[in-house]
Amino acid sequence: MNLAGLAWRNLRRRPVRTALSILGIALAVGSALALLALSRSIQDATRDGMDEIGDDLAVTQRGASDIFGGFLPDDLEARVGKVAGVVRASGELFMFAPSERNRQVLTLGWPEASYLWKNVPLREGRVPTTGERRVAVLGDATAEALAKKPGDKIELLGEAFTVIGIAKYKSLINRGTVMLPLGDLQELSYRLNQVTMVHVNLARGASAAEIARVRQDIEALGKVTVSTSSEALDNDRNFKILNAVSLAISIIALAMGVLYVLNSLVMATQERTREIGIVAAIGWSDARIMASIVIEGLVMCAVGCGLGLIFSFFAAIAFPLIPTIGDLISFRPSGRLIAATIAAAFGLCAVGSLYPAWRAVQLEPAEALRRA
Amino acid sequence: MIASLARMTKPQDPVPPLVTLERVSRAFDDGAIVALRSIDLAIPAGDCVAILGPSGSGKSSIVNLLSGIDRPTSGRILWNGTPVESRRAWSRLRRDGIGIVFQEFNLIPTLSAAENVEMALMGRGVAPGEQRARAQAALGRVGLAHRTRHLPHALSGGERQRVAIARAIVNAPSVLLADEPTGNLDSANAAAVADLLFDLQRDTGMTLVLVTHDESLAARCRRCVRVRDGEIAEDRIQLPALAPHGIEAAE
């Protein structure tokens, strides 16, 4: 027999309490994993969206708190395009715009000559022609959610647009967008001559030194920040808040799970005071007695983490099937996130088990044996 | 012969004591109850000592203090001439050199007979395979080779006490402390358990300290220490030791 085997035997002596404690840990770990994965997934999905469009660099207003919060003059596109090393550049105005069925859709405005239109992976229909106004290309998820097809009308910002194409992007963010001519979006959103971002493509195989020089040259054009998609999102205040909130809630969830373990072990050690006296009397050291109790906590934690992992994967599969959730988000816990969450759960469980373990060795063995 | 009898009546032995209690007192409830009053007691290695007295006389307190499962209120306890004070030192002593048998058996109810014995080996970090083999051997030594898988509730009182004895001897201790080991047994089982303890003492040469209120059981020990009201009322050698492990060989 070893300590882990003994711990398992002891846990099986009180199956209901053990099961409830394990369920508590499982829900805590599952919730923490789902929440953290969700916040990471939103950021990752946004990055995937920017990368799918083909960004090497993104130019935003210097000091803007988030990617939606800064504005640039639309003539910056041309000036950026002239910087040595820049192959092409395109301005983009984007915002969440009110649409039908009380929905807010991520709406992108692109200049009519932008290369971004040429890169749209059309499933059906076409992109706007030069000078064409009040037309829209829908991501397939938006089209499906609003039941639109080419030729239909769609209401955006209180105006009717004709759907002329359906795009089949891969990233969830882009699948949920609506693309309009830049002039329409500027006009309807009172952002005349403004864009939110300038997308930049560099020559293939540009060296790190070359990229650094291009960034410097663009930043010399005005009060702008040049960053990769990852840098832009990592510095985004909204994502920082989202990550901080999800981390805080996850810690609370895990702490609650640990409280289940602590409560269960405190009760168990009180009930087994005499047995603790017996093992002390036959020569178990305080450290070994404490280890046996901490291992009980860790065994509960291990089973709880396993179940929590299953819960989180179940949530990752089930949530996207729920219409109001699945249109907006999808998530899948990464290996790194799973490892970090499980490590945190084990660390907290070990700490939480120490108190009942410490209590267990405070009595002299003779006193423990007297407490039948 | 006369010289031998004279030696037999004196508690002092030439062999240095294995364990010594020096002016040891034990009180409970902030001194309201005094279990032991400044007693001195030295037990040489290999001796067979009965601690005899009525209920509440303090004899169990002596065993608790000898094993370190309780602490004296004052005085000190020496093993092989060295004072033992820390919990850690006491744990090590119990793990390596002391076997304890209780009146209440003190078996863990959810573990089988063999597993209860293995618990004493777990304290020493013995590998599981070796634990099993040694536990089987110890249970065989007490006549329970056929009951190793049984839980305590499926064993008779005598069998439970045998399991407790197997657990106490599995680490080959130098001293076996038995606190009223026959107190909860019927006469037949009590006799069998007593025989087993004395056989073990004779065969292994371990020191046996037997707490009892049974005069006939105490009479089988070489030395008898009578305790009354927390004090040693009498301490006498009543039998010669047995060769080859004894303190001195019988003439």
Structure summarized in a few sentences:
The complex is a heterodimer of chains A (372) and B (251). By secondary structure, chain A is an alpha+beta fold.
List the helices and strands and how they pair.
The complex is a heterodimer of chains A (372) and B (251).
Chain A (H helix, E strand, L loop, with lengths): L2 H10 L2 H39 L3 E5 L10 E2 L2 H6 L4 E13 L5 E7 L4 H4 L3 E4 L9 E5 H7 L6 E4 L2 E9 L4 H4 L1 E5 H7 L5 E2 L1 E6 L5 H12 L4 E4 L1 H6 L2 H35 L1 H9 L4 H33 L4 H4 L8 H26 L4 H6 L2
Helix pairs in contact in A: 1-12, 2-10, 2-12, 2-14, 10-12, 10-14, 12-14
Chain B lengths: L1 H7 L8 E12 L4 E12 L3 E5 L6 H9 L6 E6 L2 E2 L3 H10 L1 E4 L11 H10 L5 H14 L15 H13 L5 E5 L7 H18 L2 E6 L2 H4 L4 E6 L2 E7 L14
Parallel strand pairs in B: 3-8, 3-9, 6-7, 7-8
Antiparallel strand pairs in B: 1-2, 1-4, 4-5, 9-10
Helix pairs in contact in B: 4-5, 4-6, 5-6, 6-7
Keywords for this entry:
A: 372 residues, alpha+beta, 2 domains, two-stranded antiparallel ribbon, 12 strands, B: 251 residues, six-stranded mixed β-sheet, four-stranded antiparallel β-sheet, 8 helices, 10 strands, disordered N terminus
Characterization of this structure:
The complex is a heterodimer of chains A (372) and B (251). Chain A contains 15 helices and 12 strands. By secondary structure, chain A is α+β, with helices and mostly antiparallel strands. Chain A has 2 domains: 3-46 and 239-370, no CATH class; 56-227, no CATH class. In chain A, helix 2 packs antiparallel against helix 14. The longest helix of chain A is centred in the N-terminal third of the chain and has 39 residues, at 15-53. The model of chain A has no long low-confidence stretch (mean pLDDT 88). Chain B has helices spanning 2-8, 59-67, 87-96, 113-122, 128-141, 157-169, 187-204, 215-218; strands spanning 17-28, 33-44, 48-52, 74-79, 82-83, 98-101, 175-179, 207-212, 223-228, 231-237. The longest helix of chain B is centred in the last third of the chain and has 18 residues, at 187-204. The relative contact order of chain B is 0.19. Classes of the chains: A alpha+beta (372), B alpha/beta (251).
